Amino acid sequence: MSRLAFLPRPGVRAKQLDPLAPVPLDDGGRAVAHMAASLLLAYPDDDTLAAAPTVRDAVAGLPVPVRDRLAGLATTLLEGDPVALRADYVATFDLKRRCAMYLSYYAAGDTRRRGHALVRFVEAYRAAGFEATDGELPDYLPTVLELSARGDADGARIAGTLLAAHRDGIEVLRSALASLGSPWTAAVEAVCLTLPPVDAATAARVADLVTAGPPAELVGLSGYGNGDELPWE
């Protein structure tokens, strides 16, 4: 997708949300939920929109809180105006740092530590027998969710470890999307419902990130941008 260069709209301050209570899921159900979220969180191009009916059918057997969120977003994509959806997606995920879908960004920000974090993601994929080849950085949330869905038992375990290690970032993303009233909030909420409960230490990190944002030391990471053109708010 091309990235549009225009000034961000005035932001809405996100507030930390209460954690969602996990929904019991077996391994197969979690894989379906994660694959559905991976597809629905992708840029709404023709392929994503064409997949939405299949996603909606696939999640029909999931627990209601997960099913309704994923099926609802699929319906929104199917019934929405494609041009408006694409513009909204870019304005949300490309132009708002709080809505970054790059998990290591929240912990490492635009610092040299980010590079080391990305290497760990690459190593994790290789340990699971996968290579990230879609042109996105390896910490891209839909890619991690796809690993969780498509991997064998070891792959799912590795993906689960990555998601757990970056749960604070996922929670900040959920809060930011909710504050915007974004339809993509539903997919992130569905993911959170499949993860273990948020512990006290993670909740404290989320509170810090919501208030102060990630660390800053601009290094110009290729594929993500400099990070200096957008305020944390």
From TrEMBL:
Pfam families: Nitrate_red_del. It comes from the Bacteria. Coiled coil: none annotated. Keywords: Nitrate assimilation. This is Nitrate reductase molybdenum cofactor assembly chaperone. The gene is narJ.
